[in-house]
Amino acid sequence: VSDSVLLSEIAEQPGVLERLLRDAAPEIEAIASDIRARGVHHVVIAARGSSDNAARYAQYLFGSHNRLTVTLATPSLFTLYRTPPMMTGALVVGISQSGESPDLVAVVEEGRRQGCPTLAITNVAGSPLTAVADHTIVLRAGQERSIAATKTYTAQLAALAMFSTALAQNKEWRQELARVPEFVADALRAGDEAIVIAAGALKNAGHGVVLGRGFNFATAFEIALKAKELACVAVEPYS
Amino acid sequence: VSDSVLLSEIAEQPGVLERLLRDAAPEIEAIASDIRARGVHHVVIAARGSSDNAARYAQYLFGSHNRLTVTLATPSLFTLYRTPPMMTGALVVGISQSGESPDLVAVVEEGRRQGCPTLAITNVAGSPLTAVADHTIVLRAGQERSIAATKTYTAQLAALAMFSTALAQNKEWRQELARVPEFVADALRAGDEAIVIAAGALKNAGHGVVLGRGFNFATAFEIALKAKELACVAVEPYS
């Protein structure tokens, strides 16, 4: 996949977010209504790579906005050791662009077996992850051809924010979310020069660290992952 | 602190572990008995640095041996954002060599405020962390003068294993644990030549990765931290 495909997927983000905010809102409201009725006080999230960074964002989002404790699952407890923990009182969520990863499917499947409500967040309707979940949020981002996730990562963040907002039934946050596609479009237009300078510094760095705290700890992880995937620079995230 | 202090602290490990296994057993049995009576199904652990790697070990240990879901706390939710999540049904644990870190104290204090059972694991009896916890396991490792934690890290792992074993009331595991000081002494005697070769490779590596899965994912994190702290080599842990 060429650089121009990656750039065009990056450029699609405002449109993807606008479509998600418009078309997925009714299903997300319905899911949140069901989850509220189930009396959940804890969330277990299984994810890998960029999706795991979206899960890290959810730790802060669900923690501060919904007062839910969020656990990032350790899938090998479910697959390698075959001794899954009890997830009493938890909503079990799988986040995966493709919805294919067998270890994430195993976590969500075990959640269902234990009687927990389960949720898949994926770009691929009908993928294996959706088959084991009670509820699915489909990202509607269109096919992502680059290995480096861009439009599906920001769509995952938006889906999590929509779900958090629907759980809290908070109208103000809903209005703020509606403006995100416009902010993303502005950032894509404005950022070119600063980005080229930053990329030049990164290219010659050899290795480095990227700092982020709280909500942006996830951003630090995602920047570090992108630096490794795309620029082969060993960048490490720190809080 | 000189290298010889670090080496002598490394050499103390079999003795520290033997003392912990002998002297702390009654208090750990009593704590486990209380926690069992509280009907805990979830554990939230707050820790930093090497102690956070001990917490990572606890994720696999409590998950597979006690079927408990383990969450690594995000202290900034408690301090920076002041919107702590509800930790319903959780045992809240703080792990800290010194017991001083204010953000870890804030997590355990909030757990107590919410009515959760709370536990401090620390090397310093009477430290601030112990003041906000219902129960304390004191590591009895003696003063650790090196910044790089060695004997207190392995003592934390042993304390967690003793606690897990006491929770499960498993006699077989207790017998296995009793042999650990001997295994550690053997490893310290046998390892010299292989360690010198590995250290030479690390010294000239510039940067690298260390692989570990499941229980040894924590070990991979701890090796990476030590490579950074002591050899200034940017090593990253991977599952």
Overall 3D form of chain A: globular
Taking the sheet with the most strands of chain A, its summary is: 5 strands, parallel
Main interface: chain pair and counts: A-B, 36 and 36 residues
- Structural classification of chain A: alpha/beta
Low-confidence segments of chain A, ≥5 residues, pLDDT <50?
Answer: none
Order of helices and strands of chain A: HHHEHEEHEHEHHHHEHE
Oligomerization: homodimer
Helical fraction of chain A equals: 40-55%
Q: In whole angstroms, how far apart are the ends of chain A?
A: 33 Å
Radius of gyration of chain A from CA coordinates: 18 Å
Number of helices of chain A: 11
Q: Into which percentage range does the β-strand content of chain A fall?
A: 15-25%
Annotation, overall tally of beta strands of chain A: 7
The pLDDT mean of chain A sits at 94
Strand order of the largest sheet of chain A: 2-1-3-4-5
